[in-house]
Amino acid sequence: MHLRIVYFLILGVVLVGCKEEKTKIVAPEVIEAVVEKISTSTYEDLEGNPIELSDYKGKRVLVNYWATWCRPCIEEMPDMEKAQTILEQDNYVFLFASDQSVKKIKAFEEARGFQLDFIKFNGMYAAENVSALPATFIYNEVGEQVFRFDGGLKWDSPEMIEKLRAVK
Description:
Layout: H1 2-17, H2 28-38, E1 43-44, E2 50-51, E3 60-65, H3 71-86, E4 92-98, H4 102-112, E5 118-121, E6 135-139, E7 145-150, H5 158-165
Parallel strand pairs: 3-4, 4-5
Antiparallel strand pairs: 1-2, 1-5, 3-6, 6-7
């Protein structure tokens, strides 16, 4: 009797273990959507749309790395706002990149009221050779970095405006 029970148990394990598993076929569109979510761009706007500096080829680009807790960053923003207005006819794009959450950046934007183009930086500051904030990079119209400024500056001074206008 015991041999029969063991026989049926072994037969049951074999049948269950050999059961063919049905595989699911995933549509290529679903795979592409998942891959797109995984591969994040270097930057994104506050709505989550990917941004790359190469998107601005043909324009002069100022990228300012900052944080909501960085006092010198915040202190230079009114001057940056003025410089942006002065240089709007000079083919400039000003981008303010923070690695903080979109939620924090939006809250900062609402609380402070700056009219600046805030974006989310998805990389690591160290990869951009940034060890202190603020750090500002200026790119010419072909996408080459031509200047780098570390620390807070007087961005709307005549000397700085002249330097930015001279970028080729």
